[in-house]
Amino acid sequence: MTKAGIINVTGYAGVELARLLHQHPQVDLVSVTGRSLIGQKLADVFPHLADIDLAIESEIADVDVAFSALPHGSSAEALLPLIKKGVKVVDISADFRLKDAAVYEEWYGVKHPAPELLDKAAYGLPELHREEIAKSSIIANPGCYPTSAILALAPATQNNLIESDIIVDSKSGVSGAGRTLSLTVHYSEINENASAYALDGHRHMPEIMQELAAPSVLFLPHLIPMTRGILSSCYAKLKKGVSKEQVRKLYDDFYNGEPFVRVVNTPPQTKQTWGNNTCLIYPSVDLRTNRLIVISCIDNLVKGAAGQAVQNMNLMLGIPETTGLDYLAVYP
Amino acid sequence: MTKAGIINVTGYAGVELARLLHQHPQVDLVSVTGRSLIGQKLADVFPHLADIDLAIESEIADVDVAFSALPHGSSAEALLPLIKKGVKVVDISADFRLKDAAVYEEWYGVKHPAPELLDKAAYGLPELHREEIAKSSIIANPGCYPTSAILALAPATQNNLIESDIIVDSKSGVSGAGRTLSLTVHYSEINENASAYALDGHRHMPEIMQELAAPSVLFLPHLIPMTRGILSSCYAKLKKGVSKEQVRKLYDDFYNGEPFVRVVNTPPQTKQTWGNNTCLIYPSVDLRTNRLIVISCIDNLVKGAAGQAVQNMNLMLGIPETTGLDYLAVYP
Amino acid sequence: MTKAGIINVTGYAGVELARLLHQHPQVDLVSVTGRSLIGQKLADVFPHLADIDLAIESEIADVDVAFSALPHGSSAEALLPLIKKGVKVVDISADFRLKDAAVYEEWYGVKHPAPELLDKAAYGLPELHREEIAKSSIIANPGCYPTSAILALAPATQNNLIESDIIVDSKSGVSGAGRTLSLTVHYSEINENASAYALDGHRHMPEIMQELAAPSVLFLPHLIPMTRGILSSCYAKLKKGVSKEQVRKLYDDFYNGEPFVRVVNTPPQTKQTWGNNTCLIYPSVDLRTNRLIVISCIDNLVKGAAGQAVQNMNLMLGIPETTGLDYLAVYP
Amino acid sequence: MTKAGIINVTGYAGVELARLLHQHPQVDLVSVTGRSLIGQKLADVFPHLADIDLAIESEIADVDVAFSALPHGSSAEALLPLIKKGVKVVDISADFRLKDAAVYEEWYGVKHPAPELLDKAAYGLPELHREEIAKSSIIANPGCYPTSAILALAPATQNNLIESDIIVDSKSGVSGAGRTLSLTVHYSEINENASAYALDGHRHMPEIMQELAAPSVLFLPHLIPMTRGILSSCYAKLKKGVSKEQVRKLYDDFYNGEPFVRVVNTPPQTKQTWGNNTCLIYPSVDLRTNRLIVISCIDNLVKGAAGQAVQNMNLMLGIPETTGLDYLAVYP
Lengths: 332, 332, 332, 332
Hints:
Chain A is α/β, with parallel strands linked by helices. The first copy, chain A, is built from ten helices and 14 strands.
């Protein structure tokens, strides 16, 4: 059994990781840390984890693989000593996602704590970087929005189907905003409410651009009143002469055999991924304007965070990629 | 007092009209009809209308102004005899919205019942057609999505700010789908769920194109889990050399003095219009891609239907436009 | 026009009061205060109040009537100087509700700041204390839960219909917990969730007991995932020989002519009171166990707080009780 | 591998069973039937079941164990031939729950189709009838409300802690009302809404009385705006001299070792059971009125239906009771 630990378990991505790792047949979750609540039993703070008998510690114990759910900046710093010790790490934060330290500094407002490691980290989107992930021991787990956007558009950009002018209009459930209190996600404020935010630029934009190798992307996130789920509606101008059928065929081929991406025949719904690690993708063409429209759906806490982290861990450990992730979505 | 009647009161737009007309100081709601439930008291079917002492009839009584909340096709047919009698009418359905009967037939699949009247009908968006509405006695009340999209983009198209490539990504609350039962809006299906629909074209698209005089518009509607509200995120390529400040100034000027449109300084939220007749508009520019982004919010049942219908009635009657509509939004 | 002010406008009861007073035809809202946000424009903090041109002040201006939405303890203290100046006051907090200062101290954990005024204050439930309210200039606005419970049970206790053993099981929307941030009402925590709280006793219990003159009441509040509304299910053992018809008749008589209480013929729903000042009451009898069951519904922020406060103000000012409160519920 | 089939898979309990059986390590789901949609692939109708390669049939195939999610009446009839063939059956409907055919007829309005089998059926609440279930081949899977109420109160009734006067006030998520369309659970009607129903008696009441051996129970169900979950608040007069500590100790002992019941130290929340088979129970005492209060939470579709059905199947098959059910709740 592989010994796993979670650094900063106390947010939504952290506890979702705890849930998945506890249920993983080849992993023992042996240590969890927090920046607060230290000494408390995990089960007392999070009753749904009653079956996990661990206390929240200040320091991670001796583990084979460590997940960090710390905020950016702190995350890389906390992982450095583990990386040096040879522990395999999956960073849920943004610290190892951007290959260019200058871009990181521009968007995150801090100097990168370990720019020399950026080359060694794999961007943990298995559908694009499976082999690199398997060989790496530092995984930059993708952001939730980028996961939905990149999977939606990679078949188009890699097959050279589209001209530039990519627009990604994403709608996210509220858990994406985390467990930290704020008026924005106070129940009475966000229930029966919808809004756009980050109109001057969101940190997930450079991540999408990097992975799509796109010169420009307009990314606009929205908050809608549900707990889990991201629906991304992606628009791009189609090259002349590309038919709807060709688009569909290329998407089918691109994701053929992928365990966690399903190209579907009808517009997908976020609920169809609730609690599971699948990304649903529906490519279409608006014939009137000759635009590609791709709709993608994920559970932001699973394929958009903890589930993908486990998928990456499986690849690093050389065990079947779907291990511990073969749950159906919970419906309704 | 003006005598008003509602044809087919039993849907959500119909009962919202009943609520607003009952509270209107210069109107007596004297007659309501339905296609079912005939003979029942309105207050028994809709307990929130307990103060209205009317039974649901099969035929509209003698009125000065009639509102139709019938489905398209039936609506024009039901209004024709009233129009001939000189009754002022506001049609909540789509029957008089499209000026071109051929476009109507293409999108609605039926021959227009009264193409000769299309010229006499005013498109009931007061911010664009106030004078025409005041002179007309047939008002085509705009669709909910078009209201949000046209108000968001008219300042840009009329001021020649943008090149083509308009994309309207709208998110609607579930009441827009009406009171008719369907699995799509069965609570357990749509709660905690989001989806796009009508990817092959939605009937509100030609309406948006007509009013913006735009050669092409990509319009994609989404259903999100809330009862009321539409948030539209509109994208278009900005002409070169137009600054963010110019855009803002033109929007401010365009809607200067409008009682029911407010150009706001921060991204608006649908909840800020809950139960009231305002459209909130936030114009912005994505400097990286030189795109105009306009966010608009309305209550789909008020400014998107019943409230705008009352606003149109006020204009037709020559009374102050805000009469019976000066309620603040209900928050939270 | 009566000049009105709101002390501590920044919570949900406070802004709901601002909305109602702004729309009140015989009142000018001239001053609002806060403990934070001082100097900011009300419309900037609360966009739905855009039509109100007031800044948040630290001290209330010269007014004829003042509403306090401060927390208990602070509220009485802030009102004392106004009371001395002869300003009529409506206290939304609990400070003047309990007639017995010792009971107040027991439940609120502080000494009452002005026990000598308790006798002069009227408990602001107009259906029970209309005349007293009209003569008083200090109104203790009832709690939201007590409003729903007392109105549900007063006809039974006053007509001697029941033996003791009163149980009140109340379900509240989340806005009742206020605008202050807390994990309990963080969206992702309370959405798709229901829970009971205060099993060892809730401060609204002695208030219910006082007004029903009941020797014992078991009151258990619950939080359910909606913004507005309280549904109280009240149970009590019926005296022998009392028929269902007698119960119904007594309830009908008790509330005959009441503008804001409606005894209804089918179990009511909270949505039927959304945004309006009505309390819906459905008395029934479980014949198998000979128990009275009374279901009551209110909007916790209107009849449960701000609306009732306006109703009390109307009575104090000697103007028609329904002035500024004659809005229908907003549905759906 | 045991071959399992689901009769009438197309409702919410049916698809939840399909999800759980598909994930069960010792069972092959080999056949599913419906009364409609026959011939369609399960995965096309229910996209979350994409991994299950079965078509909806009109007749159940050859199986070792069959689950029926048919409505009462039809269910027993459909199961009879299978029972005769020696197939083990779990009936999700009410047909085998009530031991007295006359009580069944009184509450369900039809003659029981097989009264001679009532004695042979085990009431499938393992915590009360484990051994009987293991020996039986006809399991009456309990109703969702009864599961929550009986587990909450059985320790009290069996230990003779309470006098009569049991009141069960239950709050249910909307999925309990099923997938059949109705205005009651139309999204815009039930979102932001709460109501009580069945004030003249609910079919789950005799079931609760039977299992608690209680001479009288007042049971009142409520519908609240969430998809999954039941919270039951149970009240009963405590015998004199029973302390809070004694109550707690008896509950702890009663459920000691139970894999799917957890007696908790703080009031539980329905979300803590989302998607999992646990029942959380919090016993308390209101010292002022000497009443026992017990709060219980379940997921109505898991412990309240499909999960418990699998638990019963495990017992019948003689495999570990928790097999295929050891998932943590999905939070948030």
